[in-house]
Amino acid sequence: MISENMKKIIASLFLLLSLPSVGQPPRPMKVLPLIPLPREVKYSDDNFVLSAQTKIVLLADGFQHEVDYINNFFKTNYGFELAIVKKMPTDGNYILISRPDFEAGFLENYDLNINQNQIFFLAEGNPGLFYAMQTFIQILPVEKTAEVKIPCVQISDSPRYQWRGMHLDCSRHFFTKAEVEKYIDYLAMYKFNVFHWHLVDDQGWRIEIKKYPLLTSVGGKRKETIIGKPAFNKDGTPSKDDKYDGTPYGGFYTQEDIKEIVAYAQSKYITILPEIEMPGHSLAALAAYPQYSCTGGPFETYTKWGVSDDVYCAGNDETFNFLEDILTEVMALFPGKYIHIGGDECLKDRWKACPKCQKRIVDEKLKNAEELQSYFITRIEKFVNSKGKQIIGWDEILEGGLAPNAAVMSWRGIAGGVAAAKQNHFVVMSPGKPCYFDHYQSKDKTKEPLAIGGFNPLDSVYAYDPTPKAFSAAEAKYIMGAQANVWTEYITTFSQVEYMSMPRMAALSEALWTPLDKKNYKEFVVRLKMHAPVLDRMGVNYAKHFKSIK
Ligand code: TNX
User: Fold this and answer.
1) What does DSSP assign to residue 445?
2) pLDDT band at residue 20 under the 50/70/90 scheme
3) Average pLDDT over the chain, rounded to an integer
């Protein structure tokens, strides 16, 4: 007796290998270089031939932006633009863009149907149409020809998770506006919709705040940078043998830069989540404004990696005024619902020795320094909520009690995310394994650029599912999705950002978009190999380990 399961396995093997029926020559398996793989794809052997004579029939309002986007793509890559008409043409082939005649409210969903004479883009919302175009672009030939042969296909698509994020640390190393926009392009290509922008840390403050100019003129610079990894003595104290490069380092984004980057991301349906770290990871801010620390300083922007003992003073009301002023400017720049307030790795030694912090603990009837951290975050949350926004923080914000409306980003494994979801708080999963793209992607470290440690190969990223297996449906609805983090202590150039994030970003996109039962790593690698020329055309410095996977 063959079990049902066995039957399924056999059936899927047949599908994958497209075994010939008796008497027919073997046919290669049908695969298109689609990443993330859409929910439903029906393949055909026919082609649509696009040329400068093909027309775009635009039958819905509000889609001009996407039409311009695709026309611009044609112009850049094939050297022609298509005429846009509002009526069905009587001859020639065409691309028809329309909305379905019902409203379901699924703004990211789309259908893309290509037959020999027509291409149909059907989407209710602009993000859906934009995603349809990303899918379409992935199956266009990379070579520049006058007639563009496009495979006929029928696609119905929708995302599995609503939060599909990628993070970039622009504090430890600074990346230019053009580089950040390139990164946003990569996110858009794989249908990510959140860019988590890590803008401040101990080693550099990178966002202009008009009310506090020293944040960038002082906190935006460090006098030098450690070479390699910090060393420690046996007792845990920093080694005196650490070497520094003796070269000043700095950079920041003006508010004008930020507005342009926000608009750029919006044009690709990506929400930017800005992160302003508190109460720890704040030495660069304290170098500029030491009065908001416990000791009064003076401080220098950190020149090595790791966390500083000096943090914002939680006993001083002026600290909160300072942070509220900063957040007011930040909230005006970023239209998204969430503001990331950090909350991670706040060392408590200064608070324990600070009379003001101790007085706060007594006045507020707190038990200890952990509860003081919770007081800090809850107070900031109240302010952020009063402006109509929500906070999200790293999972340390659970310690001492979660602020009432906070969402949690789980990085120290998934325990924080699980605990938060069980308390009915929204969660973004980003566990170190496999979501830290600053970790190695190959076991042979001698062939890799220096990385922070760890091992997160492509297959582990691909296999990731943010919803814990043991979760009930009710708990699962608190898991908004996941993101990968690109911390840049050891990533000094944008080319290295590309190397660390590509193609792991592609694998994550499929983990967040594609239905579980459609995922198949081997087949993903086949698609990735076919997709590689697109990355070559874009000039991306992607890691090539996947090319030797059999
Ligand atoms: C931990 S993730 C940090 C970062 C480091 C990273 C390096 C988190 C909330 N904090 O400050 O850059 O590890 O992997």
Assistant:
1) G
2) very low
3) 94
21/174: higher pLDDT: 174
For atom 2 of ligand 1, which residue has the closest CA?
A: 411
Q: Which of 345, 371, 448, 523 is catalytic?
A: 345
> Who's near 410: CB < 8 A, 6+ residues apart?
395, 416, 417, 418, 420, 427, 428, 429, 430, 431
Mean pLDDT of 170-193: 98
The angle at the Cα of 260, spanning 259 to 262, to the nearest 5 degrees, equals 65
What spacing in Å lies between the alpha carbon of 344 and ligand 1's midpoint?
8
Q: How far apart are CA 214 and CA 322, in angstroms?
A: 13
Distance (Å) from CA 12 to ligand 1 centroid: 41
- Counting Cα atoms < 13 Å in the Cβ hemisphere of 87 gives 3
Q: Ligand 1, closest atom to CA 172?
A: 12
The SS3 call for residue 182 is helix
**452 within ligand 1 shell (Cβ under 6 A):** yes
Instruction: Give catalytic status of residue 340 as yes or no.
Output: no
4-157: CATH, from 3.30.70.120, 3.40.50.920, 3.40.50.720, 3.30.379.10 = 3.30.379.10
Residues 140 and 150 sit within 8 Å (Cβ to Cβ): yes
pLDDT in tens, 416-474: 999 999 999 999 999 999 999 999 999 999 999 999 999 999 999 999 999 999 999 99
Q: Where are the domains of the chain?
A: 4-157, 163-431+463-492
Q: Is the pTM of this model over 0.90?
A: yes
Question: Does residue 269 line the site of ligand 1, with CB under 6 A?
Answer: no
Cα 278 to averaged position of ligand 1 atoms, centre (Å): 14
How many Å separate Cα 51 from the centre of its chain? 35
Of all atoms in ligand 1, which is nearest to the CA of residue 487? 12
Ligand 1 atom 6, closest CA: 487
Q: Is the pLDDT of residue 26 over 90?
A: no
Q: Is 281 labeled as catalytic in the residue annotation?
A: yes
Which ligand 1 atom is nearest residue 396's CA?
Answer: 9
What confidence tens digit (pLDDT) does each residue in 481-499 have? 999 999 999 999 999 999 9
From 345, 450, 497, give the residue whose CB has the most ligand 1 atoms within 8 Å, as the site to mutate: 345
pLDDT in tens, 226-247: 999 999 999 888 889 999 999 9
Write down the catalytic residue from 66, 201, 277, 438.
201
Q: Is 161 left (phi over 0), alpha (psi -120 to 50) or beta?
A: beta
Question: Is the beta carbon of 437 within 6 A of some atom in ligand 1?
Answer: no
CATH code at 163-431+463-492: 3.20.20.80
In the prediction, which pLDDT does 28 show? 52
